[in-house]
Write a structure and sequence with these properties.
- The protein is α/β, with parallel strands linked by helices and about 400 residues long.
- Strands 5, 6, 7, 8, 9, 10, 11, 12 and 13 form a 9-stranded mixed beta sheet that branches. It has a 4-stranded antiparallel beta sheet with strand order 2-3-1-4.
- Helix 1 packs across helix 3.
- It folds into 3 domains: about 100 residues; about 50 residues, Alpha-Beta Plaits, CATH 3.30.70; about 200 residues, Rossmann fold (3-Layer(aba) Sandwich).
- The chain is globular and about 70 Å long.
């Protein structure tokens, strides 16, 4: 493919990404994969170049652009060599018209920028949300230690007991250490959240929003497979992926529980008032993960944020029914909005006086309300909020 043809292909894919963002359709990485399957003539270098163009345009645009061409024109305004490819050659983009308007740049749609600013995420802190994330690994202590791991590439040791960092894009899925379950892909921030949850051997631990089980596996390792670990979720598809992951990791999960949304306690009744730890890794806006999913900021609306905050409050209420006196709730979101973090916990504590926040000792993060917040700019991790809430 010519460089101009790559640009036009990126524009075509961006049109699909924009339409999907407006309709809550497929994510950008899936649309890129579908395009590659339908255009076998594109070689690996072509696909890589097109992917880079697509994601560069997504990161550059704040509000949802009118179309893929407007998004690419924004990049062209910043790079003369890219603008020169709008020359009307076959398979390339038509020349830029005098009245054509590029998309608007920025960090996010205006309403969301306001919410971030109100949560003290602005300037470099906000801009860092759109950088490219590194690849972090967690040494699985059920099978190995960080000191004894032998990896095909040199990894940076993180200030976490089992954390390692590799450059973005490192292909670890075929490494023997990965295939044998010696390491798991897990962002350093997520590892820190599991460390703060402080699951201990012999405890009854409930992962209330387990999903596909990334944090569940970390909890099992922290517990050294001693105790009872329950993984629960409302998503059957995601929960079904936990079993093969746990087998590969050698992780003992006592039971997986499919929950009925709004009626969670119907399935969780056997553990009511018995849990030492309930991990609430709540569904959220994902503002802390934009480095990995930059188009997700185009999908969020004020109405969806309101729905998520209501869901988080309800899940915290479920957790209060599960935790025993003297037990604790670890509340986590991968959001940097106070609506879902410090503000959510403040409302919870006001309504539940038997719970008190416990200070956290973490190698990352800064205090935020009754918890701790991690950001890409300050900590080099995905964005997270965590609070540990002890029951009287």
């Amino acid at each position: 493919m010519t460089p101009a043809a790559r640009v036009q292909s990126a524009i075509t894919i961006l049109d699909s990404v924009i339409a999907a963002a407006r309709s809550q359709g497929a994510p950008a990485d899936r649309l890129l994969a579908e395009w590659a399957r339908g255009n076998r003539y594109a070689g690996s270098k072509d696909r890589r170049a097109i992917r880079d163009l697509v994601y560069a345009a997504i990161r550059a645009c704040g509000p949802v652009p009118a179309n893929g061409r407007a998004a690419m024109l924004l990049l062209a305004e910043r790079a003369a060599d890219l603008a020169a490819l709008f020359d009307g050659t076959p398979y390339g983009p038509p020349a830029i018209g005098e009245s054509e308007q590029a998309a608007s740049g920025g960090v996010a749609p205006a309403w969301l920028v306001e919410r971030l600013t109100a949560s003290d995420i602005a300037g470099p802190e906000a801009e860092a949300l759109l950088g490219r994330a590194p690849l972090d690994l967690r040494a699985n202590t059920l099978k190995a230690s960080r000191a004894t791991l032998v990896l095909p590439a040199e990894a940076e040791e993180l200030p976490l007991p089992n954390g390692l960092r590799l450059p973005a894009g490192t292909q670890v899925e075929q490494w023997p250490a990965y295939l044998d379950g010696l390491v798991e892909v897990q962002d350093a921030g997520s590892q820190a959240m599991c460390l703060a949850a402080n699951a201990l051997p012999g405890e009854l631990v409930i992962d209330l929003c387990a999903g596909a089980g990334g944090k569940t596996l970390a909890l099992a390792a922290a517990m050294d497979n001693q105790g009872t670990l329950i993984a629960a979720d409302t998503d059957r598809g995601r929960l079904s992926r936990l079993a093969p992951r746990a087998e590969r990791a050698g992780a003992k999960v006592a039971e997986t529980v499919l929950l009925n949304p709004g009626r969670e306690m119907q399935s969780l009744g056997p553990w009511q008032g018995k849990a030492d730890l309930v991990l609430v890794d709540a569904p959220c806006s994902g503002t802390g993960t934009w480095r990995r999913n930059p188009e997700s900021r185009w999908r969020l609306t004020p109405q969806e944020l309101a729905r998520l905050t209501q869901l988080q409050a309800r899940l915290l209420d479920v957790a209060t029914q599960l935790v025993r006196p003297g037990g604790r709730i670890a509340y986590i979101t991968c959001s940097l909005l106070d609506d879902e973090g410090a503000g959510q916990v403040e409302r919870f504590l006001a309504a539940n006086p038997r719970f008190t926040p416990t200070p956290l000792d973490l190698p990352f993060g800064t205090p935020r309300g009754a918890g701790t917040r991690l950001t890409p700019q300050h900590d080099g991790t995905d964005g997270f909020f965590i609070a540990s809430l002890s029951a009287a």
